[in-house]
Amino acid sequence: MTQSWVTGANRADCDFPLSNLPYGVFEVSGRPPRCGIAIGDMILDLTELVTNGLLTGDDYGFDRPALNHFMAAGPKAWETVRNRVTDLLADGGSAELRENVALCRQALVPQATAQMHLPIEVKGYTDFYAGRQHAFNSGSILRGPENALTPNWSHMPIGYNGRASTVVVSGTPVRRPLGQTLPGGSATPVLGPSRRLDIEVEFGAIVGLPTELGQTLTVDEAWEHLFGFVLLNDWSARDIQRWEGQPLGPFQSKAFATSISPWVVTRAALEPCRHPAPLRDTELLPYLHENAPYFFDITLEAHLTPADTDRASRIVQTNTTHLTYSAPQLLAHHALSGCRMQSGDLLGSGTISGPERHNFGCLMEQSWGGRDEIALEHGGSRKFLEDGDSVTLTGWGMVNGQRIGFGRCEGQILPAPQQIGKAG
Amino acid sequence: MTQSWVTGANRADCDFPLSNLPYGVFEVSGRPPRCGIAIGDMILDLTELVTNGLLTGDDYGFDRPALNHFMAAGPKAWETVRNRVTDLLADGGSAELRENVALCRQALVPQATAQMHLPIEVKGYTDFYAGRQHAFNSGSILRGPENALTPNWSHMPIGYNGRASTVVVSGTPVRRPLGQTLPGGSATPVLGPSRRLDIEVEFGAIVGLPTELGQTLTVDEAWEHLFGFVLLNDWSARDIQRWEGQPLGPFQSKAFATSISPWVVTRAALEPCRHPAPLRDTELLPYLHENAPYFFDITLEAHLTPADTDRASRIVQTNTTHLTYSAPQLLAHHALSGCRMQSGDLLGSGTISGPERHNFGCLMEQSWGGRDEIALEHGGSRKFLEDGDSVTLTGWGMVNGQRIGFGRCEGQILPAPQQIGKAG
Predict the structure, then answer these.
(1) Which chain A residues have a beta carbon less than 8 Å from that of B419?
(2) Residues sharing a CB contact under 8 Å with residue A125, sequence separation 6 or more, in sequence order
(3) d(C-alpha A23, C-alpha A228), whole Å
(4) Given this model, what pLDDT does residue B182 score?
(5) Is a pLDDT exceeding 90 seen at residue A40?
(6) Per-residue pLDDT of chain B in tens (424 residues, 90 and over written 9)
(7) Partner of A382 at 20 to 30 A CA spacing, among A44, A252, A286, B384?
(8) How far is the alpha carbon of B150 from chain A, nearest alpha carbon, in Å?
(9) Taking CB atoms and an 8 Å cutoff, what residues of chain A touch B237?
(10) Could you tell me which residues come within 8 angstroms of residue A350 by beta carbon, excluding any fewer than 6 positions away?
(11) What is the pLDDT of residues A145-167, one digit of tens each?
């Protein structure tokens, strides 16, 4: 495995070795937000490469505060840049950057000094429900195990449009939402802060290459349209969701915040983590057929840190292999109606739950609808989130003992507003 | 009522008198798309006013191909521009434009020569379900009259996130979508063109002034954030909707196209059309209380023209007074969770149906779930739309015998694609 000359990139516990090269948008003092690539402990400033003639050719818009322009350039462009940056950062590769000390000082920025922004302008956010265990668990809690899965679930990826305007980058605090809920035994709703605030551990796919209005995609074509992947925490207010959710689906219960990791790990980087489709109990319609393994083997974890401690307790351990529908299947189904797909569309997998309790990807499942306390390994317990709690998602694939990591996706819960409107 | 010196503006059948002044984005040969105001048969090019010093002060971005920048400037700016343009176009007002023949020729463009674009960059599209008759009718068709309304319906505006990327301007053809449907009596879905393609006659509200993440709004504050209104046709594939819609709500069945009128009629123009709230059978929670009449009295019609004729048959006649929740109530509820609202968010009212069959705002209701044929006044009948059908929405308020009109919102149905993917 090729090593990099950049500090930290070859450490076994590093998320960002030479074979990863995820994209993000960063800001350091004196430079407006712009696109960069994580390598070891550093960020490679792509605008500096362009300015200094080390990255030539098309204008990929790396000086913009979002990857959308570059993503729309398509797979050939993505490959060209990846190959060039790999060469510049590899031991034994081109010396143009490595041996230019002044440029290195300018173009390599310590991650510790950078503020990360949303990596993409999120054009549309669609959240699916593509993991069978989660669909079965949440259906069982709401409707009992015999009615857990609606009949459509086994035939297509069920999804809904989420709220794009409140997708936020890791580190953004999450204010507990106000909403209508129906107290147990009551026929009349009340207004107040959600009392059942939850996480959802998800895997987010990002559309790079857009489609035209009316254009459809095969699964194989959809694969080529995908640029990369992020960690995604779809914060959810279960009590608001329960009251509002019928007949049109979740709305304000999931509109207050959705956190994503600042680094977009590309499809190319995850190539060695590809994984075959799960056994399915239903034959899918031909438009959802897969001609290749389009799943990934990515370990996902969530840790919770209460406000009064700095010790993080692991609360979820799961894996993307528990999904039933792959990212290109989600995209092919999304485009089936002729729905225009945009560079910067974010497709959430839905909560990813494995077979055991500690593999369940949200607190509602782990506490089985709020029935059971979830013990935290460093003391205390939870059914749902409390004010001051921080939740951190991490994720990685393993390739020859090296992590292809996603960094962190975290958020801390702030108390709900005291009042409605300007006074609040 | 003040008259205008512009051709056609004072005709009784004109949608765009001096008291209207709706905003749109137009293109004529030789000029890039830009913002304008409809007056009579003409469009006032606001960039020409700015360039020639007739509209001074802040930069409202009228040379851009969307109103978002101007809308974000807020109610004071909207009032300033409206007052100035009224003065320039009124009989007896400022002569600066009227008596400058060369500038008139440059700044007043015949609507007949202009191509209209989407008036706004649609940031988010949220569709509600705010009319009781429609909610009751469609619930009755699906679940029977005793279960027609879910218990939450009377306590809050039920809505879902729609697909913003496929909101299109009037005149854009609408391709019949492919999708999964479940044939009657079958347990296995099939793929094919929707056979139950429908319209939904709606009233769209456009958010002008944005909110911050975590900010909530009272209904009175929400009113101030609303810039204007459009006609909206939420094309729907009922057979796809029926199969996909549970448990997460409509998705691909409404993702292929949503048409809006090119002209945004401002809140100021509709001031004389304000209407009190309907009697409700349920006391709303205080955050939804209204301190003023926030409804409008706007007549809405839909006409259908089959491919083999040019005679349009009126199929729907309804009115926005049939809504149960007002636009500022929709917005206040939308922001309740702290959801960030954006300049350019579009809020659909949901289908507006009145008490009689011909007042029902979609074909599913008029044909009662496809049971009855709907006779067309100029011959033929429909249960749902056929390829080649054109549907046109119109709408207007009446003030002292003068129309405050919305122009037209139309679309023609194209056949479904023959194949999936590039080959299709």
Answers:
(1) 216
(2) A161, A162, A163, A164, A167, A258, A345, A346, A348
(3) 9
(4) 97
(5) yes
(6) 689 999 899 999 999 999 999 999 999 998 999 999 999 999 999 999 999 999 998 899 999 999 999 999 999 999 999 999 999 999 999 999 999 999 999 999 999 999 999 999 999 999 999 999 999 999 999 889 999 999 999 999 999 999 999 999 999 999 999 999 999 889 999 999 999 999 999 999 999 999 999 999 999 999 999 999 999 999 999 999 999 999 999 999 999 999 999 999 999 999 999 999 999 989 999 999 999 999 999 999 999 999 999 999 999 999 999 999 999 999 999 999 999 999 999 999 999 999 999 999 999 999 999 999 999 999 999 999 999 999 999 999 999 999 999 999 999 999 999 999 986 5
(7) A252
(8) 7
(9) 337
(10) A127, A128, A129, A130, A131, A134, A135, A159, A200, A202
(11) 999 999 999 999 999 999 999 99
Nearest CB among B190, B249, B338 relative to A256 is that of: B338
The tokens describing B225, both together, are: 């954030």
Dist. CA A86–CA A364, nearest whole Å:
43
Fold assignment, B125-414: Fumarylacetoacetate hydrolase; domain 2 (3.90.850)
Residue B15 CA: distances (Å) to CA of A234, B12, B39, B398: 45, 8, 9, 10
Asked whether B245 and B181 are in contact (CB, 8 A), the reply is: no
Spatial CB neighbours of B304, under 8 Å, sequence gap ≥ 6:
B312, B313, B315, B376, B382, B385, B389, B390, B391
> Given the structure tokens 């304008």, which residue do they identify?
B36
Task: Please tell me if residue B291 touches chain A, with a CB cutoff of 8 Å.
Answer: no
Is B155 touching A (CB cutoff 8 A)? Answer: yes
Q: What is the CA radius of gyration of chain A?
A: 22
Task: Say whether domain A23-117 belongs to CATH 2.30.30.230.
Answer: yes
CA distance B204 to B230: 5
Sketch the domain layout of chain B as residue ranges. Answer: 23-117, 125-414
Say yes or no: ipTM exceeds 0.85.
yes
Whether chain A has a CB inside 8 Å of the CB on B185: the answer is: no
Instruction: Tell whether A221 is in a known binding site.
Output: no
Taking the Cβ of residue B209 and every Cβ of chain A, the question of whether any pair is shorter than 8 Å is answered with no
Longest dimension (CA), chain B: 72
B202 labelled binding-site residue = yes
Q: Do domains B23-117 and B125-414 have the same CATH topology?
A: no
Residues of chain B positioned with their CB less than 8 A from the CB of A424: 216
Which residues numbered 307-326 in A keep a CB inside 8 Å of some CB on B?
none
Inter-chain touch A216–B424, beta carbons under 8 Å = yes
The partner residues of A300 in beta bridges, in order of sequence, read: A318, A395
Tokens of B159: 């809505």
- Taking only the tens place, the pLDDT of each residue in A260-271 is 999 999 999 999
CA dihedral A206, A210, B246, A183 (to 10 degrees): 50
Active-site option among B69, B134, B275, B303: B134
Mutate: best of A137, A142, A161, A325, partner B, most B CBs <10 A: A161
B277 C-beta neighbours (distance < 10 Å), count: 18
Q: Under DSSP, is residue A229 helix (H, G, I), strand (E, B) or coil? A: strand
How do beta strands B381-382 and B258-260 pair?
unpaired
Q: H helices then E strands: how many in chain A?
A: 10, 26
For this structure, is B134 an active site residue?
A: yes
Cα–Cα dist A368/A371, whole Å: 6
Contact A164 B124 (CB under 8 A): yes
Spatial separation of the C-alpha atoms in residues B322 and B279, rounded to whole Å: 11
